[in-house]
Amino acid sequence: MREIFGKEVVVINVGLDLFAEELEKATVPVQRVAWRPPAQGKKKVQDLLARIKKKKGKE
Amino acid sequence: MPEHAAAESGMTVKKGLVHRDRYYDSVTLMRVTNEVRSREGVCAAVVGMGTDFNIDSLKRMGLFLPEFDGVTPNDLLVAVEAEDDAALETALAVAEEEMTRRRVISGSDYIPPTLERALEMNPEAQVVLVSVPGRYAAGEARKALEAGRHVMLFSDNVSIEEERSLKELAVSKGLLMMGPDCGTAILNGVPLAFANVVRRGSIGVVAASGTGLQEVTCLIDRFGFGISQALGVGGRDLSKEIGGLMTIECVKALLEDAATEVIVIVSKPPAPEAQKSLFRELEGAVKPIVIYFIGADRERIEEAGFVTAGDLEETASRAVEILTGEPVGQLVPENLAREIVANRKLPGPFVRGLYSGGTFCDEAQRKLMEAGFDVYSNTPAPGARCVEDLQKSVGHTILDLGDDDFTRGRAHPMIDPAERIRRLEVEFADDDAGLILFDVVLGYGSHPDMGGAMAAAIRAAREKSNREPLLFCNLCGTESDPQGFDKQRKVLEEAGVVVFPSHASMLRTATELLSGKNAFKGKAADHAEVGKE
Predict the structure, then answer these.
(1) What was the pLDDT predicted at B517?
(2) Residue B384 sits in which domain range?
(3) Residue B292: which CATH number?
(4) CA pair distance B190, B181, nearest whole angstrom
(5) What CATH number is attached to the domain comprising B38?
(6) Is the Cα dihedral B275, B292, B196, B220 positive or negative?
(7) pTM, full prediction
C-alpha cells in the first residue's frame, strides 16, 4: 500500500461510466471497460463457469 | 431487429422497443431516460434494463406494453408515452441517439469487454474502481486484487463475508481495499468517485463515511491546509465482523508515509471489539491522531491517547491546530450566528432536513437532540424516532434522501436533484415547516449545478405555496471544485438561502434560531397539538 503513495495514479473503471467521465475531466489516465453481466446475466451459466474456473485453479 | 408494439390510449400514444443486445449501467440509463422525458410532448418514458424493479415501474405507469412480456434483466427496454405520433417518434429517436452517443466514448479506441482484458492491457494501472451491480462486485474486486491492484469498491449489496475475505486478501498483499459502499477517496491528490479538489498537504484522513471524508477534507482546505491521502474504508469496516481491518491498514500506512504528519479517523462508533483492535494496533503511534467517532464517548478515546472532536468541523480544526500550534476559531462564531437569526421570523414551528449525505443527516439529528429537540428521521440516530410515513414529515423531521428508502431505482440525490426538489415543494407547502435545512455537496461525481437546481426549485416552490420558510444550506466544497464554491454560494444566496461553509456552523445557527423563536420544543407526542391553541 505504501508503494502507491507518491506515484502517478492510473485507473481502470469498471461499472458506472460517470466515474470514467469525471476522471477524464480531472485529466487522470483511465481505462474504461465495456462491462456487462457475464454469460448475459444467466445465473445458471455463471455458476457453471465459476465452478469450472475453480476446478481449473486447483489443477 | 427490435420488436415493437404501438397502442393508443385515449389522448396519448405509446410505443415500446426491446433491445436484446445492449447493456448500459444504471446511471447512464437514468440520464438517457431524463433526456427523453425532457422532450416536448413526452408524458412518460422509461429506458432501462428488464429488471423486476423497472417492470414494476412500467406497470405502475401503464407502460408495460404487450411486447415486454417475457423480457429478462438482460434486455434493454424503451417505453414512451407521448401526446402524438410526432412527439413519440422524436422521443424514440432521441433515446437511440443518446444511447449511440454513449457507446462511442473514446472514438475508435478499443474498449475491453472484461476487467481481465483491461488488467492485461494496462499493467501500469494500479487502481481499479468497481461500481457494477452488487451481485458481481465482489468477483470483480477479487480479480483486481489477485492481479495485484488496489481496489475502490463503490458498489454495495456485497455480503459481509465477502467483504471480510476481500479485505484479508488485500491486507495479505499490502493492497488497498476501499469499500464496499465506499463512495469517496482522494489518492495522491486524485479524486476518486465522489470527491473534492483540495490542497495537497500533510493531513491524512481515513474514513468510514463518504460525506464525512468530503466535509473534513474541504474544511482542512478552507483553513488553508492540505491532504496527503484521504482513504475510504466502507461503512462496515469497524463492525464486529470486519474488526477495522482496513482502517488499521490505512492508518499504519499513513504512519509510515513521510508526507503525512497528522492522521484523522472518521466513523460512526465502532463495535467494541473493533475499537479494541484499532486502539491496540495504534498504541504508541508516532504521529498525532484525531478521532471523530460520531456520538461516541470522547473521554474513553482521549484516555487511549487520541485527540477527539465533537463534529466534522471540529475534526478539521483540531487536525490543523496540531500543525500550527494555534487554536482555530469556529466558522460562524456565536455572535455572527445571533446576527444571522436576529431579524428572521419562523413561519412554522418545525425544522425539516432534506439531506443527500447520510453523515450530515446523522449529525443534524444529534445536534438538534443535544439542544433539546425531539427528532424524527428515516435513519434515526440513537434517541430519535423513526418516521412512520416516508412521504410525510412530522414534527422536526430530518431525512437522509440518499438512503435506500428513497433511492430504489433512482439516482442518488447528489447526482440527481429531482426527488429532493419534489420533497422541497411538499415541505414548502406545509404550514408546520418553518426552517428547511439542506446540504449541497460539490466535487467530482456530483451534479454540475446543484445550487442552481435548488435555487430554481426554491423560487418555484415559493411562488406555488405562497409561503416563506427559512432556508439554510451547508455547502460542502472548495473553490477548485468543478462547480466552484463561490458560484454555487451566490446562486443559492440569490434565492434567499443562508449558506454556511460547514455543517456544524449551520446547525449551531439553526439551534440558535429554533431556541429563541416560536419553534416547538415540547415532547414529540404533543406536537400534534401545536397550532391548535
Answers:
(1) 63
(2) 334-515
(3) 3.40.50.261
(4) 19
(5) 3.30.1370.10
(6) negative
(7) 0.88
pLDDT less than 50: residues of chain B: 1-9, 105-108, 529, 531-533
Q: For chain B, say whether A8 makes contact (Cβ under 8 Å).
A: yes
* Cα distance between residue B146 and residue B168, in whole Å: 12
Judge residue B21's burial from the number of C-beta atoms within 10 Å of its C-beta, 0-12 exposed, 13-18 middle, 19 or more buried.
exposed
Q: Please check whether residues B127 and B242 belong to one and the same domain.
A: yes
> Which chain A residue lies closest to B75 (C-alpha atoms)?
A40
* Nearest CB neighbour to B113, from listed A6, A20, A34: A34
Q: Which among A8, A19, A37 is the nearest to B129, CB-wise?
A: A19
Q: What pLDDT does residue B532 have?
A: 38
Does B49 share its domain with B129? Answer: no
Nearest Cα neighbor of B425 from B451, B459, B379, B394 is: B459
- On whether both B387 and B274 belong to a single domain, the answer is no
The shortest C-alpha distance from A52 to chain B (Å) reads: 15
At residue B11, the pLDDT reads 82
Nearest to B259 among A5, A11, A17 (CB): A5
Specify the pLDDT at position B106: 45
Do B315 and B345 reside in the same domain of the chain? no
Nearest chain B CA: its distance from A59 CA (Å): 18
pLDDT of residue B518: 58
Cβ-Cβ pairs closer than 8 A, A with B, add up to 150
Cell 404533543 belongs to B526
List of chain B residues whose C-beta atoms are within 8 Å of the C-beta of residue A36: 23, 113
